[in-house]
Design goal:
The protein is α+β, with helices and mostly antiparallel strands. It folds into 2 domains: 199 residues, no CATH class; 150 residues, Oxidoreductase, molybdopterin-binding domain (Sulfite Oxidase, Chain A, domain 2, Alpha-Beta Complex). It is built from 10 helices and 10 strands.
């Protein structure tokens, strides 16, 4: 007698709350975090790599602007990680629905969800590793992270369009079809959402202290503590990494190129009008801290070289190599009185790791563009 195999039984999930309403609530929170992270990330990318037509239009104020936006970028990205995991938990039974593809439209919908999930996981976790400056991959992080961010937002918009009827029903408090749930599930859902909110709050409070000074005592898991570092300020790129040594600085002079080029020794720079200014150093990895800088104004140096009020500036570092060895400032930065050539930090001469003999400090500017070991300024 031949045995006839029985039909494949449906996969059962004993866990509750894998439903549309729970997924929609968590998805709304996740969407807000992703939008905040994306918007601030695009702003950071534009400030670091401005298109030619925008270079002279970038604002240099408020001076704390980049500290706020980049801190929000990293904080919203970290907060999105537990939200993404909770969202995947709420919807994962649908990944095992049978049959896996019911129509061409269903296949395209599943493909868009696959792109959304893959892009979300890639973007959030590579961004997290970037805050630790750990790059276990062969590609350049910045352009790939930027490109995948646009892919993620495009997939998210497509997903919202497909799921709009369910989202609309949640916002209007209607409960037809899949949103009709036993009343007994209400307390469980509230507990689940409270636990998710508590998890997001915990990871935020224990990491955001790297950019919010008042929450510094709660900063347990942030990749960088703003209080740790030479002269009371962290260092990302050391002099050793940049291959800058005290011996290589022997006979250092600052060259200023323009219609009337000249050069200055360190002693001549110190003889110029000195100012003390408190400005934040805000890093792309999310940490930031205000410090007291002893400075010479860059616009004074450019004016002496014959620079007109509508010119920008190019800054060239003495470091041997690096993606930001040469940086450009538009005229809004170059002419701002808070764009500075720093010679001292917190009442002391700059340490070698902080850019001795001179470094750039400018308002509303990413830390990677606050060039250290400055060797030349060029009227642009």
């Amino acid at each position: 007698m031949r045995l006839i195999p029985s039909p494949r039984p449906p996969i059962g999930f004993k866990g509750r709350l894998h439903d549309a309403r729970t997924a929609t609530v968590i998805g709304r929170w996740l969407g807000l975090a992703v939008v905040a992270c994306f918007a601030t990330g695009v702003l950071s990318h534009v400030l670091q790599h401005p298109p030619v037509w925008l270079v002279d239009r970038l604002p240099s104020r408020p001076h704390w602007g980049y500290r706020l936006t980049q801190g929000l970028h990293v904080a919203s990205g970290i907060a999105a990680i537990p939200l993404l995991l909770a969202k995947l938990w709420a919807v994962y039974p649908r990944l095992f629905a049978w049959p896996p593809v019911r129509s061409v439209r269903h296949a395209l919908e599943r493909l868009s969800v696959a792109v959304l999930v893959a892009a979300g996981i890639f973007e959030l976790f590579t961004g997290l590793l970037n805050t630790f400056q750990w790059y276990p991959w062969p590609f350049s992080f910045v352009p790939v992270h930027h490109a995948v961010g646009w892919l993620l937002v495009g997939a998210l918009l497509l997903h919202v369009a497909v799921q709009w009827p369910v989202i609309r029903d949640h916002f209007t408090r209607r409960s037809p079809g899949t949103l009709t749930l036993p009343a007994a599930d209400g307390p469980d859902r509230r507990q689940l959402l409270a636990a998710v909110a508590a998890g997001v709050g915990a990871v935020t409070l224990t990491t955001v202290g790297q950019s919010v000074t008042a929450l510094g005592p709660l900063e347990l898991f942030g990749p960088r503590s703003p209080d740790h570092g030479p002269q009371g300020l962290p260092v990302n790129r050391t002099a050793a990494a940049a291959r800058v040594t005290e011996a290589s600085l022997t006979g250092w002079r600052l060259s200023v190129d323009g219609p009337r080029p000249y050069s200055l020794t360190l002693e001549e720079l110190h003889a110029m009008a000195q100012h003390e200014v408190t400005l934040p150093l805000a890093c792309v990895e999310g940490w930031s801290k205000s410090a007291r800088w002893t400075v010479v104004r860059v616009r004074d140096l450019l004016d002496r070289a014959g620079g007109s009020p509508d010119v920008g500036c190019r800054v060239v570092s003495l470091e041997a190599a690096g993606a930001y060895r040469v940086t450009d400032m538009g005229r809004s930065y170059a002419r701002d009185p808070l764009t500075l050539l720093a010679l001292g930090l917190n009442g002391e001469v700059l340490s070698l790791d902080h850019g001795y003999p001179a470094r750039i400090i400018a308002p509303n500017r990413p830390g990677v563009l606050q060039t250290k070991w400055v060797g030349r300024l060029e009227v642009r």
